[in-house]
């Protein structure tokens, strides 16, 4: 059935948009994730992607034209489908793209962590006092249906400037900073720290100080949009001791807010460490897990100390954690983060819906080791073995496109573009940033991109669009000494490659036993899309590229 795609609201202040460029034309095939058009908003020019598959049957707003939000932008459906009823104003399912866009900012547009504040329903908006803005739980990824507030960085009564970080929100992909597009006073918090709520639930209300917003919150909640909102009065009546503890842990000596990850705060609390004594190594001075783990009070200089007692107190180690004596039962319960819940859900769905099988091949790494050493002699060049594997995979996928496929109930989608996801371990779980059009990248470009994406993934600075659209995945545990393992397919991909450690061992060459370096590769395949022979042929090609790196330059 044909789907109507409407002009999306790409910012909270956007009322109309201009189609700068159409990247598809009527009759073109559309895949999920394809970029349909570039749309100019009141804030930036952004790429607008499709959540739907089919044929582009109609374009409602031509390039250069401006139209209000929710105007008919396009119609996507089956080739040859009759859409006359839709064009005449008939009903059709409105694409989720209209209200939940997956927009990717261009180089000149803000590309921070999905800084999106969703607007309140039209009915509520008409009843808002002047200057008051309702902020709802944003959709920070295309697969996000609910979010968890990990940390509030503002409290009721605080002044909020445009661009200030309101809260850290756990999505199904990462914990992300959520910034404000509005200025005013934080009048109301609808979702408390640690609480989970669906997308579009009432998150906060911002407006002029002293504005009465009780009716707004009640009306919004009674409409079913918000869940378990907390009144501002509850925040104001918190015990004084709790406020004091919070100030000690989360504010600096000059009263400024200390930025720290939720895990860093928890570890600091367990160890009795005051955050204002710790220097953060993350972006903007954010304190992360490693800062707390590596912190010792003795390392803090005390030039201003007046007495020997003060110096001795400063160098005293943190109180050791009490452990249960041997022989006694001891358990600890750790609340599942939103990321961990989604990881569990997705991997279980993948393992129990896709019939997995694994193919293993051993690869000689002698030539690759020599080639890497030579490549890295070039100034400002740093290529890892994993980069070489990724490049080899990209080239092998072009020769074996069935590996680069997706299963649908009525068809198999063959992707002729290569977007390789690289599994990266972070403190809360696992994320998979994506190298777009990997086959067109050089080894040095792959190396630089992987380092950049992995670094930002560990600092929770990846945007959702950087973790979407993979067609194949590589997971490497070789740096941990793991020689061989099997991975679960990262759906909707049809395969994932597991890369083990390089091992020095006796091998047979030309009838002689010599010392050689080998590496095990394991390919997990979805048997619905990839037959055993097809997977084996892919691994043979991959082996040829890795064992003769010069062939990757041809």
What would you say this structure looks like, in words?
- The chain is 23% helix and 26% strand.
- It has 554 residues and is of the alpha+beta class.
- The strands form 7 sheets. Strands 18-27-26-25-21-24 form a 6-stranded mixed β-sheet.
- 36% of the residues are buried.
- Residues 94-126, 222-249, 251-255 and 299-316 have low confidence and may be disordered.
Give the helix/strand layout.
Layout: E1 3-6, E2 16-22, E3 29-30, E4 35-40, E5 45-49, E6 54-59, E7 66-68, E8 72-77, H1 84-87, E9 103-105, H2 122-126, E10 133-136, E11 146-152, E12 159-160, E13 165-170, E14 175-179, E15 184-189, E16 196-198, E17 202-207, H3 214-222, H4 232-236, H5 240-250, H6 262-271, H7 289-293, H8 308-315, H9 338-353, E18 356-364, H10 366-375, H11 385-399, E19 405-407, E20 412-414, E21 420-422, E22 424-426, E23 429-431, E24 434-435, H12 443-458, E25 472-476, E26 495-509, E27 512-526, H13 532-547
Helix pairs in contact: 11-12, 11-13
Protein name: Dihydrolipoamide acetyltransferase component of pyruvate dehydrogenase complex
Enzyme class: transferase
Domain Lipoyl-binding: 2-77, 132-207
